[in-house]
Structure formats: C-alpha cells, structure tokens
Amino acid sequence: MASSLEVRVPFLDHRVVEATSVLSDEDRFQPLGKKQVLRKLALRDLDATLFDRPKSGFVLPIDRWARNSLKEEMTAALRDRNFCEAAGLDAGAVDRLWSAFLGGARGLYWSRVWAIYVLGWWCREHRMSVR
User: Fold this and answer.
1) Is 60 in a helix, a strand, or coil?
2) Phi, psi at residue 43, to the nearest 5°?
3) 8 Å CB contact between 51 and 43
4) How far apart are CA 118 and CA 113, in angstroms?
5) 51-102 pLDDT, tens per residue?
C-alpha cells in the first residue's frame, strides 16, 4: 500500500505528480507508510483522526443486489443457454448454481454467481465466445 497512492484517480492530477517528483526520496517516503507529504499538504484542513485509525474495508452490496434489484435481470441471463455457453459454461450447471444461490445454500457466496454473470456479459458485449 505504500506505493499504491500514485495510481488512484484523485491523485493523478499532473500538479500533484509534478510537485512530488521534485521531492527527495526521504521527503516523499518518510516515515514509511504514513504518506506524510499528502497529510501535510493536501489534507491539512481535515481532521487528523480521519486518518489515524485502523483501515476498514468496504464491500459493495452485490449479494443484496443479486437477490433483489438485479434478480430478474440475472435470472434471465443465467438461465439463457446462449449466454452461458458463450462463456464456455454448461447452462444446466449454471442454472443449478443460480437456484442454489437464490435458495440460500450454505457456503455459496455472491462472488460465484457474480463472476459467471460478469463473464457472460463480457462475452456478450464483446461478441466473444469461450467455446
């Protein structure tokens, strides 16, 4: 994480890149992992307690979307033989997986059905077939 900051979209502004490129390595990176320059300059008007805390994750509510607002759309796609076969998947197996997910099967998380759904849409969008 110490160097991931440079690729985050809000920090790709050329003025930020130009300003930091003239700093010495010590000024840019010390203390390691603290992003001190960013804190001093860009975030000086913000409350320090926002940054002096443990990291916390953020998870998109894909499970809830799949079971509610996207349920009809995902059902239509995942039960479409051409949709599944273009992604190189057995339509019957995908249907059983989707039904088990909707039925609340233990250990079957949203990521399994979401990956299939996204792969199928990618194949459809790009007129590609994995077959």
Assistant:
1) coil
2) -115, 20
3) yes
4) 9
5) 677 877 778 899 999 999 999 999 999 999 999 999 999 999 999 999 999 9
Structural tokens at position 68:
């509610």
Structural tokens at position 29: 């990176």
The Cα 79–Cα 57 span in angstroms is 33
Supply 21's token pair. Answer: 């490129």
Condensed to tens digits (0 to 9), the pLDDT of residues 18-49 reads 887 888 888 877 887 777 777 777 677 778 77
Q: CA 34, CA 28: separation in Å to the nearest integer?
A: 10
- Which tokens is 105 given? 């099967």
**Distance of alpha carbon 10 from the chain centroid:** 17
